[in-house]
Amino acid sequence: MKIGIIGTGNMGTILSEALLDGKAVSPSDMIVTNRTKDKAEMLKHKYKDVIVTASPADVIHHSALIFLCVKPQDMHAVIAQNKASLTADKCLVSITSPIQVSWLESMVSCSCARVIPSITNRALSGVSLVTFGKKCSAQWRRTIQSLLSQISAPVEIEEKITRVSSDIVSCGPAFFSYITRRFINAAVAETNIDEATATILAEHMLIGLGELLKKGYYSLPTLEEKVCVKGGITGEGIKVLEAELDDVFEKVYQTTHKKYADEVTHLKGTFGH
Fold it and tell me: pLDDT below 50 — which residues of the chain?
């Protein structure tokens, strides 16, 4: 089966490389295109049998499963220009959260779905979020779940929790990377440790934490309980976090949801809804 990738920006490239490295797709079965052809050629340079085409039309014509990885504001035009080629035997997958699957289904006759990948998928890890259209066939549902299972833990979600799920899965790595950098910078500013050493320690701490959770030794609450010895140093640090963080994460969700609502409102008009 030929897999098409339209758009090889950050997430399009991450998804492509994960599918190829995870052996979910062979390079000769992947067809890619990008507005700037050099970006698509970079993928071919790494995986020589990947097929680079000149346009989305070429990708759609030659592929059965098409991942649309362009910017949200460009998605309607790509679909509208190629809707005749998106026949009932194919499946169209958007990877952007504000585009609702029902909007895709209103434009084309093929099966439709949305997959929201995470940068963690590049390490063949983490979660990918999946929402299937009402008209998506059982065969395509199985195919997509099987592909994603080779690069992640696919989780099917309802439309109403798309934004918060994406905040956790897709935005989360950036949020916690930022928090970790602040953690490192504070260590350098307040003590004699150098940045390189603090970074190594923090990175390996995160890897170790992930392994503890992955292997099921502790849940998040039990892990905190094990480390926070009563009257100990960690407990004192937690008290500071409790006092200073206050409602910061609530405000993060409020901000991302407002931005998401604004994007949905704008795009809804573009899609005629």
Answer: none
Q: In angstroms, rounded to a whole number, what is the distance separating the alpha carbons of residues 62 and 85?
A: 10
- Nearest residue to 3 (alpha-carbon basis) of 118, 125, 93: 93
Rounded to whole angstroms, the Cα distance separating 41 from 56 reads 15
Are the C-beta atoms of residues 14 and 122 closer than 8 Å to each other? yes
Residue (of 248, 216, 118) closest to 172 by Cα position: 118
d(CA 176, CA 239): 20
**Sign of the C-alpha dihedral, residues 252, 250, 103, 25?**
positive
State how far the alpha carbon of 174 is from the alpha carbons of 51, 179, 201, 233, 245, in Å: 31, 9, 19, 28, 18
Q: How many angstroms separate the CA atoms of 181 and 221, rounded? A: 23
- List the structure tokens of 130: 């999946």
Q: What is the DSSP code string of 10-53? A: HHHHHHHHHHHHTTSS-GGGEEEE-SSHHHHHHHHHHSTTPEE-
DSSP 3-state of 223: helix
pLDDT in tens, 43-65: 999 999 999 999 999 999 999 99
Do 171 and 178 meet the contact criterion of CB atoms below 8 Å apart?
no
- Both tokens of residue 167? 């905040």
pTM for the complete prediction? 0.92
Largest pairwise CA distance in the chain? 68
**Domains recognised in the chain with CATH numbers:** 3-157 (3.40.50.720), 165-252 (1.10.3730)
Element (H, E) at 255: helix 248-270
Distance in angstroms (rounded) separating the CA atoms of residues 185 and 188: 5
